[in-house]
Amino acid sequence: MIQKITKRIGLCALALSMTACFELSEEITLQKNGTGSMEIKLNAQESKFMLDPLLQQKSSMKVQGFAIPSKDESGALIKKVQERWNAKQGISNTQMEINWDQYIVKLKFNFASLPELNQALNTGSEELHVLPSLVQYNYNTKKFERKVSAELLQLFKDSKNDPQGMTAQLIQQMGYARYVFVANFDKEPKPVQAKADVSVVGKKYSMQKFIKDLADNPLLFDQSIVF
Questions:
Q1: Among 6, 64, 156, 172, which lies 20 to 30 A Cα-Cα from 218?
Q2: pLDDT tens for residues 138-163?
Q3: Is the pLDDT at 194 greater than 70, yes or no?
Q4: ∠6-180-165 over CA atoms, to 5°?
Q5: Mapping DSSP to helix (H, G, I), strand (E, B) and coil, where does residue 31 land?
């Protein structure tokens, strides 16, 4: 199952892995009644010089044995994602945006509850065969939690056991790409111990790490924010 998943990782990610110059960010805004919004963004502006020649051609050029998709093909996938997300229970106002000039892709949507968000994120990734189930969000009046899924933990574990495999190679090459997590609340989280990669400013919590750090210790994906 894990091998099937990794073989379908997006081709742009393969191209990006050659430079590790991109940022993947996840921002959630949560209201006290459990509704909220989410934005997932891939910013590959720093890799523009490499992506331009790859995506402008429609030749048989391949990366890791896979044909490079054209912009039209990528656009069709984006439309497919938007249609599927619009149809999910508890998900509304889905917006899928792509800026080909700067290579910035955004998926934005509203959710009616965290259980419906969890369902949408996990089933959505499986339907597209891009990633396994990802995370589980929980929230009450005292704590917000973001827990990494057992499947994602297994993916990283398997990559360590197979250092020559595709997943391990991608992780190694993308090691210094940045991952950013931001959470906005309607009240202020308690201060956290001073760390260079975590901050709390007003009602906003943010964390930034390198993908390599997360691969070495996937539990760093987990967040526990206390109010």
A1: 64
A2: 998 889 999 887 777 777 777 777 77
A3: no
A4: 20
A5: coil
